[in-house]
Amino acid sequence: MPDLTDRLRPALRWESGLAAVVILILIIGSAASPQFLTGNNLFNLGLTNGEIAIMTLPMTLIVISGEIDLSVASILGMSSALLGYLWSKGWPMPAIFVFVGVVGLAAGAVNGLLVTRLRLPSLAVTIGTLALYRGIATIVLGPNTVSSFPAGYTNLGINAVPFTGNDMTWSTLIFLVGALIFGVVLHATPLGRSVYAMGASAEAAQFAGIRVKRIKTGLFMLSGLVCALAGVLWTFRLDTAVQNNGLGLELSVVAIVLLAGVSIFGGKGSVIGVVLAVLAFAGIQNALLLTNFNQEATGIVTGALLLASVFLPTVFLPQAVRLVRRLGRLRLLAGPATAGQPRQP
Amino acid sequence: MHAEVRPVDSAGSEPGQSDQAGRGEAPPVLALSHAAKSFGAVRALTDGSVELRAGEVHALLGENGAGKSTLVKILAGVHQPDSGTLTVGGRAVTLHGPAAAREAGLAVIYQEPTLFPDLTVAENMFVGRQPLASAGLLKGGRRIDRRAMQRDAAAVFARLGVPLDPARPARGLSIADQQVVEIGKALSLDARVIVMDEPTAALSAAEVDRLFEVVRTLQAQGAAVLFISHRLEEVFAICSRVTVMRDGGHVLTSDLAGLTAQDLVRAMVGRELAERPPEAAGAEPGEPVLAVRRLTREGVFTDVSLTVRAGEIVALAGLVGSGRSEVARAVFGIDRYDAGQVTVHGQRLKRASPVSAMAAGIGFVPEDRRQQGLVMDMSVQQNVALASLGALRRGGLIRASAERAMATDWAARLKIKYGRLTDPVSMLSGGNQQKVVLAKWLGRRPRVLIVDEPTRGIDVGTKAEVHHLLTDLARDGVGILMISSELPEVLGVSDRILVMREGALVAEFTHADASEEAVMSAAMGQAAGGAE
Amino acid sequence: MSTATVAGSGQRADRGGGAGLAERVFRIRESGIVAVLIVFVAVTTAVRPRFLDAANIQFVLVDTATFALLALGQTMVVISRNVDLSVGSVVGLSAYLSATLFADHPGIPIPVVFLAGLGIGLACGIANGVMVAAGRVPSLVVTLATLYIIRGIDILIVGGNEVDASSLPNAFIDIPKDTVAGIPVIAIAVAVVVALGAYYLRSYRSGRDLYAIGSNPPAARLAGVPVGRRVFTAFAVSGAVAGVAGVLWASQYPTINSTAGNGYELQVVSAVVVGGVAIFGGSGTAAGAALGALLLTTINSALYVLGISSFWDQAIWGFLLLVAIALDQAITERLTSALRKINTGKINTGERGTRHA
User: Helix A170-188 crosses helix A151-158 at what angle (to 10 degrees)?
Assistant: First the structure.
């Protein structure tokens, strides 16, 4: 029987604070520049951040399951390099898509198997594969650059989705659809519940019949596939395949996921938080760009937000909860009593 | 000679009053009087009182929730009491933290010692206070004298009579050895009071004997030992006095001579309890539901064959380390096995596949509730539902209403005490947590239920409830395989008893021809009865 | 693996077995790195003898020196079960600021600039240390954030500028070339610092405390180890050496702009892990980490000399890292199994599920 204290509890969660931040950014942004909330600008936002946004989705599941994948940007780079190389060798594009997809799956599988079969820590493994896959990208393409992809494909990168006006990029659409699917899976399916369980306690999950190894390997493979897709989109957007595509992007992806309130220890987080965090991240970058702030220094704001994401919950939330409890005791927030007595551990 | 035992309805006797008046002994080494501690609205301790004399082994008894662990934490310096006094060696002290407790000469050995696996045994003993060399290479700092550290550690182990190598890494030490390291650490800190919190829960009988030897050595050296245990036979074996707590308060303190186990249980629970767990249903068991044939895992167990029939409770007894849990985990599919087969209702199970075992109708309540049985961060509701997610699904999505209904239903059936279904399961007491684990498996209507140490670390009242539950299940036709190290439980509840020793099945008894001595002898491989 | 542990074989009494075993494993691990190093050097020299001539060795040693310095700081952090991802950004900031000091204040004494670099790094390290120690927040997140923030500050300060080596005093640029008996001065200096660091970690209480913290953080707190203070110090040192490494960096590279030090942090962590420091802390040595740094730099140089495009470089050290952690895991598992069988007396204690140390 939920009382008002219970109903308010969700409101005090990290996601609400994040929503407030996003609104704040919208306000400040539009005050700073009249172009902030235009459709054209939204479109540009989608362009610059679309691939990063897409990569945050499988990363969220991986982090909730208790692991991490730092090789995401290298898989992006590897798929971009393969795309360019095979195209320059005259392969037909559909065949290239299939090949790149398979390579993405394989790259993820390597990560997954090293973590689940050899029981190696994913932080160390993916630092290694980060180098390995970037190295493969470098070996494949060398110092070369491949450009001039057919317009039909590069348009996917730079044009708006038809029938949505001029505001939505394909990458944004993919992200939104993906967020919906991932959200439903994570929050309402047995698979999603299993992911939370194994992040909170891998052993107990195993003892409950959850196939921890299989699911984790699957998550890594999904990440590999999605990053390969991101690599293709990236290449088409820039009309360039080069070995250092996406260099360093993994940190942005991890930063966004942590900003979303997903716990680095696993077992906690939500897709709504990730969507909000993507909006916050993109919004900040964009606002600073429009106000002619040195865009690369937006890292300062990202870093500060990241710090807030870990410090505020340990300070802000307990204070707020205490406040609500005090109000509840004063019967300002009336509600039916709860059943039973909590026993101390 | 005869101890004073107040009837439990009274306010309870004061500690110290059990003294024969005018004996004129030295002041107690430690005296805690009327300590109280609350955490928010929860009053964990209302009247904690205990008094220890030099050279005695003093038992502290009480159900879960009686306030023992809060009292221990006060002595450890982890919590400060809201009221009450603590005197050590006659002087009042306030312990601001674990360091202060150590300095006052108090040491606590927890049930599961936490050592540093990467450091050596000697370093574990002296962490933070390693002996220093006299001359310093760098001015202002003195380096560690490793040889002195080894020597000092070896000397401590010699005093305890245990041949542990101080230079080996702590990694891989058995629980019993880890405890010895902790006790050695306490000795090296000149502890006058050593609190042992359920030290024997994870030890084999031989290790318990060795622990008792160590305790007697500590006694001889003048230390006072506060011994907390749920095993009354041990309490009578090693302790001379006892303090009983109930519902956060002190109930009685007395010499043990002249008291019976019944007296103690009555004091702890406040009501009459059947001495033994309920007898098995005695009905005719049905078809075999679980058949294990020649199960072998190299180095762990060999050629294990057993059958459990519908409606039967089969107990698997043996010493710690005899391979019982390993066999159970292999049957359920958590661990692999090298040879043999497992069939349920005639249908052969896939190796190393918990999913296959669950599909065939096996439920498994593991030994370690907190790490294996429950996801501590998840709610009561989510834990109950964790093994039934498929059944609660419709159109790919979990039905929240069905999940809630399942949890409410089972909580009522098993009489689980909780605040809200959405509370994290970590907030429940040990006994209620175990009920949640049971609810999780019973919700699947298993044909076979394997329970590993079903009542370990649970208070007497809930223990009885769990035993009743198991016999009820058997009456409904479920086949139960129960691993247990508590002989009264093994003998009381089961229809048949199998005994394992060093990885092999060595004996089988029916309920009628079993006795504690016979089971223990088989478990230890001796002709004569061993110590319990 | 022994199969005769069932049925009456009893246990080996613990009389030196465990210690000896652990020692042997440690030696094998350390010599493993040296072995790989020797193989690389041998193969490369066989193909291109000039790999082993003085100029090249000096080059490798100078390159290693900066890297090894960073590895020392990172080792202290990783042993305590933390990680410092901000070192790359600190190197970049320190490199640019020290180069600018020279460019804007010609005639400034070189030691002053080194101190300035140390100071900058120390400030960053202190910031990290305070947040991780006081806030009890995961260091991965904190140092990821400071990686961003420091890099951002660096970009703001640098803008589009860059400092050219020609603006730097000759005495400074010559530092990498100074040698004593054929060995670069930088390498000797760093070797001394690493040796001191190794001695500290092995023989001083506060150094051993770091191992305890990494091996079992809650137990360390319970045991009275001043966890906050130790972790703070580790991060402060890591920042300080990164600051000094930045100054050294400036003396070696022809241009310094806002990309200096990019990506260094992951290379340093790799070197440290390859060198035998467990990623979750509790074990490893400064000497091992320095060897790891030496190995990675040697591979780099070997590839260059062999004419294999440096494009293989990343792939190779990525692969090596994977091999190192897989090997370490296998070794730890085997060691734990073996140690479990060594117990006191003839008590058959066997396994007890999850409870063993």
Answer: 60
| Beta bridge partners of residue B57, listed in sequence order | B225
Round to the nearest angstrom and report the end-to-end CA distance of chain C: 20
Q: Where are the domains of chain C?
A: 48-337
Residue B65: what pLDDT?
A: 64
Q: In the numeric block, which tokens belong to residue B118?
A: 């990467």
Residue B225 DSSP SS3? strand
Q: What is the number of structural domains in chain A?
A: 1
pLDDT on residue A336: 45
H or E element: which one contains A240?
A: strand A240-241
Question: Is C342 part of the contact surface with chain B (CB cutoff 8 Å)?
Answer: yes
Whether residue A307 is contained in a domain is answered as: yes
Question: How far, CA to CA in Å, does C350 sit from each of B163, C341, C342?
Answer: 18, 7, 10
Q: How close does chain B come to C6, measured CA to CA in Å?
A: 6
- Which among C144, C318, C329 has the least Cβ separation from residue A120? C329
Which chains reach chain C with 3 or more Cβ–Cβ distances below 8 angstroms?
A, B
Q: Tokens 């539009």 label which residue? A: A30
Q: What is the CATH number of domain C48-337?
A: 1.10.3470
Across the interface, whether the CB atoms of C17 and B168 are under 8 A apart is answered: yes
Q: Which amino acid is at C253?
A: Y
Residue A334 covered by a domain: no
- Give CA B287 to chain center in angstroms: 35
CB atoms within 10 A of CB B397: 15
Q: Are residues B110 and B137 in the same domain?
A: no
Tell which residue, C236, C262, C245, has the closest CA to residue C114. Answer: C245
B/e letters for A129-165, b = 16+ CB within 10 Å, e = fewer, are bbbbbbbbbbbbbeeeebeebeeebbebbeebbeeee
> Does residue B424 have a pLDDT over 70?
yes
Q: In this structure, what are the phi and psi dihedrals at residue B83, rounded to the nearest 5 degrees?
A: -155, 170
Mean pLDDT, chain A, rounded, equals: 84
Chain C neighbors of A304, CB-CB under 8 A: 145, 149
**DSSP 8-state assignment for residue A161:** P
Specify the number of domains making up chain B.
4
For residue A340, is it within any domain?
A: no
Q: Residue B140 and residue B144: Cα distance in Å, rounded? A: 13
Low-confidence ranges of chain C (pLDDT < 70): 1-16, 309-310, 344-357
Task: Output the CA torsion sign for B135, B136, B141, B143.
Answer: negative
**Angstrom distance (rounded) from CA C274 to CA C270:** 6
Q: Note whether B394 and B459 are same-domain residues.
A: no
The partner residues of B507 in beta bridges, in order of sequence, read: B499
Contacts of C340 in chain B (CB under 8 A): 172, 174
Is residue A339 one of the residues assigned to a domain? no
Predicted TM-score (pTM) of this structure: 0.82
